[in-house]
Design a protein that fits this description.
The complex is a heterodimer. Helix content of chain A is 66%, strand content 0%. Chain A is an all-alpha fold. In chain A, helix 3 (41-58) packs across helix 4 and helix 8 packs across helix 10. Chain A is globular and about 55 Å long. The relative contact order of chain B is 0.11. In chain B, 42% of the residues lie in helices and 13% in strands. Chain B folds into two domains: 7-48, no CATH class; 56-83 and 92-281, no CATH class. Chain B has a five-stranded mixed sheet, with helices on both faces. In chain B, helix 1 (7-14) crosses helix 3 (31-48), helix 6 packs across helix 8 (147-157) and helix 7 crosses helix 10. By secondary structure, chain B is an alpha+beta fold. The chains are: A mainly alpha, B alpha+beta. At the A-B interface, helix 2, helix 3, helix 4, helix 5 and helix 7 of A face helix 1, helix 3, helix 4, helix 6 and helix 8 of B.
Chain lengths: 188, 283
């Protein structure tokens, strides 16, 4: 039971118990990122497992420039985005479709137009979703997010702001903090 | 009411990334901007809400797969591209060695099912190689997938276990046979739904489509053919299993929107004659 850096060192030295402890310590947080980014449990489980495997494989090359947790978030984010690309999910989570009453779900009604956070996030372009999730779920700074996503801090700032505004609109249509409803574009 | 802070300034103020002094002064006098700020806070709180962690068994299987990968040869378990966790820009972003992904899917499908299988009583071997096979193959490769996805597809058709040590982790079933899962006794639809895998199942079908050799596979294909005839609305076959449904030997076919997607419609057909016994929509 050491800190991350001592567990990393031990794991790199072949200590499997340390490796397991390290993975267990971060697993739920990584899963949470994958869950928010993919929008459903199955893809999140796949992405998280991919991330854990990738972390194990890449650990010998982890250079500790970033905190292990941030580095792991980076891998998980890429796993989740990779999973999204691979699955080419439709822009609505399967759960939302399945839970909609057959024939009775009029999306134009005020009640049905309110989306839960998963459905709302799925509507965002993935790069906006990633920035918002890394900030609001993972509590990374703009600089850390810039490093994880390999984009300039100014772009992080823009994506978070526009992503939040689009989310707010999706979560509660008609109360839009940035004016007319619109989906953020990928221009930045 | 001029000089309203822009959206980015409001948002960055939430995060303490900007000097909030000027914004705060404005907010004290501008109800509109306070309203916009509250909406941004609402979005932030929604995303920050705790995520339900995976079920204990899912968590343990993820860990087992990762720890097992640590035992494998470096060439198989440490893809160089995974280390720096490349950019998120569109394009291939390799994260995991393909053999591992492939084996994982086998594990997800197999779920510890023994390699021994029961043979279906069918005599329609001539139906093997029907159109749906080619449809599956076409569907698996259609569209403009990233390079990594293409590699996954091709790997699935090759030696999926090349370079891997024998599976050692709990719940890891070796890909010893075709990807048709045996679910055992399933008394009703509710139970069936609990038996369906929580994760990807497409490789079962992919492997099944590529090696239609056993009587069991042939039986599932006969029923799939009949199911498609009876239910032309079903899309892509993504999951195949056999079970004893309410005492009747049965074939379980899951259909999803696209190859690789979870089954959304699941049909249960009697093994003998392929009569529809039940169907359910999976959330």
């Amino acid at each position: 039971m050491g800190d991350d850096s001592s567990l990393v060192a031990a794991a790199r030295g072949g200590d499997r118990a340390a490796l397991e402890e390290l993975l267990r310590r971060h697993q739920d947080r990584l899963y949470a990122v994958c869950r928010r980014l993919t929008g459903n449990d199955a893809d999140a489980a796949d992405a998280c497992q991919d991330a854990l495997i990738a972390i194990v494989g890449a650990l010998p090359r982890y250079d500790a420039r970033a905190a292990f947790g941030t580095w792991a978030y980076r891998i998980a984010t890429n796993s989740a985005l990779d999973e999204l690309r691979r699955r080419r999910r439709r822009p609505e989570p399967a759960e939302a479709v399945a839970e909609r009453p057959a024939g009775g779900g009029d999306a134009s009604s005020a009640v049905d137009a309110r989306l839960d956070v998963d459905a709302a996030l799925v509507m965002l372009p993935a790069e906006f979703r990633a920035a918002v999730v890394l900030r609001d779920l993972c509590d990374l700074s703009y600089d850390e997010i810039a490093e994880v996503l390999e984009i300039p801090p100014g772009t992080v700032r823009s994506r978070i702001a526009r992503g939040r505004a689009a989310l707010a609109e999706a979560l509660d249509p008609g109360r839009n903090p940035q004016g007319p409803p619109r989906r953020p574009t990928r221009s930045k | 009411m001029t000089n309203h802070p822009d959206l980015e300034a409001l948002s960055a103020g939430i995060d303490g990334e900007d000097d909030a002094g000027a914004v705060a002064a404005h907010l004290s006098t501008c109800g509109d901007c306070r309203g916009r700020l509250e909406e941004l806070h609402r979005a932030r709180r929604a995303v920050a809400a705790p995520v339900t962690p995976p079920a204990a068994d899912v968590r343990e299987r993820m860990l087992a797969a990762a720890l097992t990968s640590a035992q494998e040869p470096v060439s198989a378990s440490a893809p160089a591209a995974a280390a720096p966790a490349g950019p998120t820009a569109p394009g291939p972003a390799p994260v995991v060695a393909l053999p591992e992904r492939d084996r994982r899917r086998w594990w997800a499908v197999g779920g510890g099912v023994a390699a021994a299988v029961m043979a279906l009583v069918v005599g329609a071997a001539g139906l093997v190689g029907r159109g749906a096979d080619s449809n599956d193959e076409t569907a698996l490769s259609q569209g403009p997938p990233p390079a990594a996805e293409s590699a996954v597809d091709s790997a699935a058709g090759g030696d999926a276990t090349a370079g891997l040590a024998p599976p050692a982790g709990p719940g890891v079933a070796p890909p010893a046979g075709p990807g048709v899962v045996e679910l055992g006794d399933v008394p009703d639809v509710a139970t069936l739904r609990t038996r369906l895998p929580a994760s990807r199942t497409a490789n079962a079908v992919r492997a099944d489509a590529q090696s239609p050799s056993s009587p069991r596979e042939i039986g599932t294909r006969v029923c799939e053919e009949q199911a498609r005839t009876a239910r032309p609305d079903v899309a892509t076959l993504v999951y195949v299993a056999t079970a004893r449904f309410a005492g009747t030997p049965a074939v379980v076919l899951g259909f999803g929107a696209t190859p690789g997607s979870p089954p959304s419609t699941v049909l249960v057909l009697a093994e003998a004659g392929c009569r529809l016994l039940a169907e359910t929509v999976v959330p």
